[in-house]
Design goal:
Elements (H helix, E strand, L loop, with lengths): L2 E5 L5 E4 L1 H11 L8 E3 L2 E4 L1 H10 L4 E4 L3 H6 L6 E2 L3 H8 L8 E4 L4 H12 L5 E4 L6
Parallel strand pairs: 4-8, 5-6, 5-7, 7-8
Antiparallel strand pairs: 1-2, 3-4
Length: 135
């Protein structure tokens, strides 16, 4: 495929994207490239997948890493509040490394950091709610 993007003074066209477009289309054929995103050893999933996974597993722990005032206004039922790293580590010390952990905040910034910390502590099944509660 050739795409003409500009014409110079002499009328000669510049052709680009042939290789880039082919590579992009090739990458789209890989399963997972356009699906859920894995960051390190935690999975970043959309809201639909987040709740499906939560309902499929047993002994799951739902962790809200927002501030108390945000948690008090609205939260997912049965979520445990861990608004900072010391609270998160205190909670983590009570959990089994194989327990599935579901982590969220408002926009996934704080929850991404929390997921990284949990994976670094040795947790194996960590799920991040992509875009947080605003999703």
């Amino acid at each position: 495929m050739k795409i003409t993007v500009a014409r110079g003074k002499g009328g000669a066209g510049k052709t680009i994207f042939t290789t880039n477009l082919a590579c992009f289309i090739f990458l789209l054929t890989f399963p997972g490239f356009t699906q859920k995103k894995q960051s390190g050893d935690f999975q970043e999933v959309d809201v639909h997948e987040f709740f499906i996974q939560m309902n499929l597993v047993e002994n799951e722990v739902l962790i809200d890493v927002r501030e108390y005032k945000e948690y008090r206004k609205v939260r997912i039922p049965n979520a445990i509040l861990a608004p900072n790293s010391s609270e998160l580590f205190r909670l983590a010390d009570t959990l089994d490394f194989e327990q599935p952990l579901f982590v969220y905040c408002d926009d996934s910034n704080r929850s991404t950091t929390a997921c990284v910390l949990l994976v670094e502590r040795g947790f194996e099944k960590v799920y991040l709610l992509r875009d947080g509660l605003i999703a």
